[in-house]
Amino acid sequence: MIVGTAGHIDHGKTSLVRALTGVPGDRLKEEKARGITIDLGFAYLPLPDGPTLGFIDVPGHEKFVRTMVAGASGIDVALLVVAADDGVMPQTREHLAILDLLGIERGIVALTKADAVGPDRIADVAAQVREMVEGTTLAEAEILPVSAVTGLGMDALHAKLAAEAWTRHAHHDNDRFRLAVDRVFTLPGIGLVVTGTVLSGAIQVKDAVVISPSGLPARVRSIHAQDQDAEEGCAGDRVALNLAGPDITKDAIHRGDMVVDPFLHAPTDRIDARLRLLPGEPRAITSWFPARLHHASADVGARVVLLDGEQLRPGDVADVQLVLDRPIAAAALDRFVLRDTTAQRTVGGGFFIDLRAPARQRRTPQRLAEREALSQPDPTDSLRGLLDTPPFARDLEAFARDRALAAGAVDRAVAPLSPVLFNAGDGRTALSPLRWQQFVEALAEALAAFHGEHPDLQGLPRETLRRAILPRLPAAAFVQALQHPDVAARVVRDGAFLRLASHTPTATPEDEAAWQLIAPLLGGDERFRPPRVRDIAALLGRPENEIRQRLKSAARRGLADQVAHDHFFLRPVMHEMVLIAADIAAHAPDGRFTAAEFRDRLDNGRKVAIQILECFDRQGVMLNRGTRRSLRADYLDLYGREASPVGRPDFKSG
């Protein structure tokens, strides 16, 4: 259990920790010389046959309040220290405000130097404290008079802390690993070491991690947890990690960085949050208010953008957007504190809501509903709200990442909602059953309307239809949705187009008769190098313009595709060439290939091969990287029919 001290300078925090643990909290030469704590100090107290208490001794001087914020993040119990001779002081109130803003609900108030005053003074200061904590998260905290000199009350304080440790709420095992770095140093024969409090999850020796926001990969060589060698560090532990990696140096990692599970690395510099402005602030704040954001051990400049109204008054709570000077590593629902730019006072604080906040349309009803859903602490409640809020389709991996949820935690959150899920690539898209049925009906209605207006066309282009339908699914999920039984029974994939199963493109008898003559000329052994339009016209003895119109009619009906002005290819041949390109890419070391390699496989001329590839580029099937191309896997079926062997869909309900 982590115990964090807080209180005014020279009220005896370090002496109290020394009396409890026998370990001096001051660790810096300057601290010992001046007799005050400048940076975080640490001490440990193993309980008999029980857990170890870890003490974070934070500085009390106003100049070092930002360090106090770093120390308070991740603590289990606050030990608020008030000297009985001085009573409540300015930094006492500010430290209490910070503890309150960080949502720390378990605490003890120690009235130190109780041996230096009489009973009446102790009662008077206790009354001051009780009035001060009223309405805060520490309103029910027990007040204990103590003396580090005579030992008065120390047994009672020790017993209270031990009781808190034994009844400590277990940290959630649903979360992925995050450690807020507060120190970085090197040790001879060991290498680079970072220390901090584990905010969530667990870490083991040999685990891979990422330093965020820089993105440097590292590996854990050894672990020191609660001042002892360990194989694992867990949420709530004070941990030292010995890290190794090609770019891991003392200058590459800084206080304020996070060591995280690689899945979580996604820095942000624009965050929607819920902010409470402290009642003691002298005036209301307006949009673009400058401040210092303190989150875990990070300290970064920020601007506050109001999302409701024109000002936020002292004591009020409102949603805001925090625009940061540089990216940080964070998780949704993390607590933060705002201080003014001069570091003179604490302004307010709250918790993060959305790490991917938009820069525009921040005040729309849709965004208001999204923020309300994202602010729910229970993942199931949050997802339920998101699935009923535009755009309705939600990326479950992004949700899990931004909440630092472990692999199985999001599945447990999703299960009660029984959504329709589409597993595509690295992500999963979820729709509620109601929104899924609305999607299916909207799809059918859009196609029916299009067929009514254009009975001679084979259907709507797949991408055009995807963008027109709400809920709007990501491209890969949309492809899978088309293969869902609810859709496949009504909608046919016809190459790059979609049509209702009941729709057959109409053709004039003249078009149909002409196609019966043209089609054989485009197939067979010459299918990869079919005759040009003018050559077909010469072979059939027809005008070139007529043949061109007949071929365009066939293209509208999905029988052929126009690759260039003078070149048409049969639809099945287009699909065959896509699969050939995919095979070339599969055998390439980097998945990329040249036009020459494609030309050689088709046994075709360079000009025609280039025309084919450029057509694929325009359709989005390929990505052109200079002289080399790669394929987009989710577009491989663009020219295929329903029975094309592109891969089985991966979707499920619930």
From TrEMBL:
One of its GO terms (cellular component) is cytoplasm. The keyword Protein biosynthesis applies. GO terms for biological process: selenocysteine incorporation. InterPro entries: Beta-barrel_SelB (IPR057335), EF-Tu_GTPase (IPR050055), EFTu-like_2 (IPR004161), Elong_fac_SelB-wing-hlx_typ-2 (IPR015190), G_TR_CS (IPR031157), P-loop_NTPase (IPR027417), SelB_WHD4 (IPR015191), T_Tr_GTP-bd_dom (IPR000795). One of its GO terms (molecular function) is GTP binding. The keyword Metal-binding does not apply. Pfam families: Beta-barrel_SelB, GTP_EFTU, GTP_EFTU_D2, WHD_2nd_SelB, WHD_2nd_SelB_bact, WHD_3rd_SelB. It comes from the Bacteria. Translation factor necessary for the incorporation of selenocysteine into proteins. It probably replaces EF-Tu for the insertion of selenocysteine directed by the UGA codon. SelB binds GTP and GDP. This is Selenocysteine-specific elongation factor. It comes from Luteibacter pinisoli.
